[in-house]
Design goal:
Elements: E1 8-19, E2 22-33, E3 37-41, H1 48-56, E4 63-68, E5 71-72, H2 78-85, E6 88-91, H3 103-114, H4 119-132, H5 148-159, E7 166-170, H6 178-195, E8 198-202, H7 206-212, E9 215-220, E10 225-230, H8 232-238, H9 242-248
Parallel strand pairs: 3-8, 3-9, 6-7, 7-8
Antiparallel strand pairs: 1-2, 1-4, 4-5, 9-10
Helix pairs in contact: 3-5, 4-5, 8-9
Length: about 260
């Protein structure tokens, strides 16, 4: 994917996050291009999830802007923020499905809240989205009746319910076995190729990064900002910063067919 030929759908400008006197990051600048899979990496405590929450509109930055097609989501009112959220889908590490509801009811929520579609159309959309994530026939199951990987796929289906232009995933494969995690990677690739959906993904799973990422941003806790940006294989082969080299040279898919290595 040649991102130079794509248009930025999200522009992050001079972003800073603080908790009290603690600076999480500052001076963060980057763009997210239409149709790309952008992966955000870095050691624990560097601000990956904080950055994601600011981009989603769940948390206010200390300073800076997040522009979605020119609209600064960090300063808009609640009505405009809700309009933005109708254009994005989100899946956090927990999956965030409502345990008291069936999978069908979980997917119905955003469709009922944000659209005026009739029940028959909503039902058709639910069946289509569940088919996309290989959960046909599980409409009436509760989350407790599904495996960890199935819950994540159901969460992806709900995130895609409104046909969002951007999907945000936080540690999608955390806690899953290698086979299930690889299946989710394949689902991400299939979704991007079929729909052209832009994705911003926080992960520390190196094999997944090599497989799904068009581009990688690396945050660093000590630097309090971005220390590397580029295609994963280029960062692996050309990085001179020891922190970047340490991350990308730990393990590659070619080094092991049996183990998946995690960077904390």
């Amino acid at each position: 994917m040649d991102i130079e030929e794509k248009n930025p759908i999200i522009v992050v400008k001079d972003l800073a996050a603080r908790f009290g006197n603690n600076v999480v990051f500052e001076g963060v600048n980057f763009q997210v291009y239409e149709g790309e899979v952008l992966v955000i990496v870095g050691a624990s405590g560097c601000g990956k999830s904080t950055l994601l929450k600011i981009m989603i509109g769940l948390q206010k930055p200390y300073s800076g802007q997040v522009l979605y097609q020119g609209m600064d989501i960090t300063s808009v009112d609640e009505e405009e923020l809700n309009q933005y959220r109708q254009n994005i889908g989100v899946l956090f590490q927990s999956g965030a499905l409502f345990g008291s509801m069936t999978i069908r009811e979980n997917l119905e929520l955003p469709l009922q809240e944000y659209t005026d579609l009739d029940p028959a159309t909503i039902d058709a959309i639910i069946r289509m989205k569940l088919g996309m994530v290989n959960l046909t026939g599980y409409e009436n199951h509760h989350p407790s009746e599904l495996s960890g990987g199935m819950k994540k796929r159901a969460g992806i289906a709900r995130a895609m319910a409104l046909d969002p232009r951007v999907l945000f995933f936080d540690e999608l494969s955390a806690g899953l076995d290698p086979v299930t995690a690889a299946e989710l990677d394949d689902l991400i690739i299939k979704t991007e190729e079929a729909l052209g959906t832009t994705m911003v993904i926080v992960t520390h799973e190196l094999e997944s990064i090599y497989k799904i990422a068009h581009r990688v941003l690396m945050l660093d806790k000590e630097a309090k900002g971005i220390i590397a940006e580029g295609k994963p294989l280029e960062l692996k082969e050309r990085a001179t910063d020891p922190r970047v080299k340490s991350f990308f040279l730990r393990q590659t898919p070619a080094d092991s067919d049996e183990q998946r290595f995690y960077v904390s």
